[in-house]
Amino acid sequence: MNSRLRLFSLALRATFALLLFGSVNAHAATFYVAPTGKDTNLGTAAAPWLTIQRAANVVNPGDTVLVQPGTYRGAKFSRSGLATAYIRFVGQPGAIVNSPGALNTNGDNLWIRNAHYIRLEGFTVTNAPRSGIAIQGEPTAPAIGNLVYRNHCHHNGRWGIFTGYALNVWLISNETSYSTIEHGIYVSNSADNPYIYGNRAHHNNDSGIQINADPALPGDGIISGAVVSRNIAYENGVGGGAAINLASVRNSLISNNLLYNNHASGIAGWDD
Q1: Per residue in 100-112, pLDDT tens?
Q2: What's the rounded mean pLDDT across residues 231-241?
Q3: CA dist., res. 109 & res. 87, Å (int)
Q4: Of 23, 108, 165, 219, which has fewest CB within 10 angstroms of its CB?
Q5: 3-class SS of residue 80
């Protein structure tokens, strides 16, 4: 690796360390969700809420929501954190989201919509009509800086993790598998600087990881500054997609990925 790329990689690692282990807001609160809770409760450990949506409706920058083991409907996240104070939703081992919430009109189970600096961590997400986890903004107002970390998205209808107009998105250490129609991870639209690191994508019908800037849609039609590194992709592509499929992606770093036993190309790079 040349010196410029080495510095770039070190800077990204430093940023990621801050995302995971950064300082905690002194005024932050911790809330709890449990299958035995009620949404009329206070959201404390002794009196938890029942739904993830109830928590999503009230959180503020720096807050943490701990979702206890159990099976839940999904939620729509529209309240933003800050770059220095993420809102964290943490699924404890055994926290399963197996259907969209009442507000999730697009068929995604966990849906960040026009919101920034949210961290989704530790959930098992399955059986979504469209995607297990989705992050979406607008062409002129992208969703910024959201982090999807250490989730297991499997057996979802179209995608495991999907992003659209999501600027500076971080997809770290997730497992995405058995997407019925398309990809394990799909980063779409003209939103630069996606960081896709340490994920495992397998047995998806099309690509394990796809980045497509969608030139036919609003925006400049290019994704630049992407990093796709240290991912593992196998047994993808029965439908024809490459293990890592890059459409209209430029000035980006694709490095140290392990691709094996895929049914189409390993890495495909092309422009529309």
Answers
A1: 999 999 999 999 9
A2: 98
A3: 18
A4: 23
A5: coil
